[in-house]
Amino acid sequence: MLPADTPVPLALLIVSLAVTLIVALRYALTSGLFAYATAKMRPGLYDGKGAQIRREVRWSLLSAGIYGAPAGIVLWGWKHHDWTLITADWASLPLWYHPLSVLIYLFVQDTCFYWSHRWMHRPRWFRIAHAVHHDSRPPTAWTAMSFHPIEAVTGAIVVPVLVFLVPIHLAMLGLVLTVATVMGVTNHMGWEMFPRWLVHSPLGNWLITASHHERHHEEYRCNYGLYFRVWDRLCGTDKGLSKRIVAEAGHAVQVPAE
Hints:
- By secondary structure, the chain is mostly helical.
- The chain contains eleven helices and two strands, in the order H-H-E-H-H-H-H-E-H-H-H-H-H.
- A two-stranded parallel ribbon has the order 1-2.
């Protein structure tokens, strides 16, 4: 990566900037891809939202720096000092553990997000920070990383902390980040990309997709989860699916009453 004699502060700065660029490009490519899909599959859905999308992109690029800094420090520490529990050796962990590690990371992310998200909906913190995200009415494929810096920090630190606590293979970590990116974008894009048989299946009833998260953006005080509906159901904050998205998707199912 960097010469061995590179001063530590400079090395951390360079690596953090490099990771920030990667996060920003990942955001641009993923959001751009699904925005293009939206234009093809739901023509006109984002009409008149140019100013909103530009604002979302600005906040998201700022968030990229907040996500990139701790990730860059972790990457440098893993590569040069073996600080973390990340491994590149498949045999160093049991085969059965690899998929389990992904589920552990996703569940911990989901848990942290649920509770920090509920905290962000307290009136004071909503005004200070979370209102930035909810300024997107309705959200678009560009909304996923549109956060105030305070909120971005609450999401940016979870995985960097986990890699010091929970062993994971580098490829499985990449899978976790891919799931986080894709679900973050698709849950905000304003229409359901997943098929009816999945969304309304026994498995789908425990997963969060656009149909579920859109209702949070419609009503605010419900559906706080990230990937799974476990905490929403345990805490009585699950209000079911967005009636608009269900109707537009032509799903002949009952949406839970308020």
